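Cross-posting from the modeling subforum.

Setting up a comparison between two proteins and wanted a second pair of eyes on the formatting. Protein 1 (sequence, then structure tokens):
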Amino acid sequence: MGKTVLLVEDEARIREIISDYFIQDGWEVHEAEDGDVALEMLDSISPDLLILDVMMPKVNGFEVCRRVRLKSGVPIILLTAKGADSDKIHGFELGADEYVTKPFSPRVLVARANSLMKRVKESYLPNGHMIGFGSALLNTLARRLEVDGAEVELTPKEYDLLLLLIENKNIVLSRDTILDRVWGMDFDGDSRVVDTHIRKLRSKLGTESHYIRTVIRTGYKFEGDNHG
């Protein structure tokens, strides 16, 4: 089954060019010219990927990202203005998974999209892919989390963060280490991104949030019994 992307960009010419490249790469492309239309479309389609231009009329990309993250873990790539580091940091805090800076090559955008989708589908622990802690169960083959028997939808970054903590059980990870491992060595944001995602992850874990412990002035660790 093919991959689907919802492309949200207010400039028709840019939309057309990007769409052509994704279609040539085998993607099914849905287009929206602004945030309002995108949010309506998301109720009727379930894309594998969402590409959002930050600067749009009506509802901008940040607001769309924020609203989407209230109900969906779909991977999100933000298109940001050149040099707008604050945009990138804000986007990550809202739950975006990647960003591509304008102007960009459509080929680069397709490559980044494929790379993100590959990471989403990768199996990290193929020989012991069911990890249980408390009433929670993490399936690393399906990248799926259940708490008290109910599925909890994680964003790609939330999943990567949880898995990193579990794989380093009882080891304190600094915010800088987490940034490097989850967001990449070239990420130039600050540790607020880590704190924001830890807070969201704890909220989704609910009664099992206590497994993620804060180590004052240092970072975080996953503490407790888990089994695979």
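Protein 2 (same layout):
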Amino acid sequence: MERKLIITVGRQIGSGGRVIARMLAEEFGCQFYDREILNLAAKESGFSEKFFEQNDEQKGFLKTHFHIHLPLLADNDFYKNDFSQESLYQFQSDAIREVAGTTPRCVFVGRTADYVLRDNPDTVNVFITAPMTIRIANVRERRGCTEEEARKVIESGESERARYYNYYTAKTWGAAESYDLCIDAGILGPEGTKELIGEFIRKKIQQ
């Protein structure tokens, strides 16, 4: 019987972390979950997916924190309902736990999955970084923007992401002690980084 495996991937913006996470999912035969978790959480809660997207890990966390006003979806009609962001986070966390408990092998990108699944012995937690120059170049290529605009995207997005992670986990986003492995993807590139992480995972799950 194939051993259960859960990989969580935290990443700096522009580091290539999401691409590497998908490569790991393919190598280890895992289901891949990034934005898909928002859809699952929406289905479980009965709320529209767009409200989970609007309150995601790097989209105005501080602006909407503590209390938001969102419509409940039922029979194709909107019903007004006040709801806290903590409740949205709980729905998302429950969706992550449900997937981890029912899917033999899966990869989660971001959304504090490493913390949500902290007591799961089948989890390998990875954080992917890269030098700012490489991250700016990647964001410029993806968005077709200037170097200055790319830098602003990275700095603003990571500020929100860190605050979101730190608030819900009481840990520090990107700090080495929060993960099993932290790696600079700028050294080996996406493929080489995937191979190194893959080797680490194989050794860890053999323990």
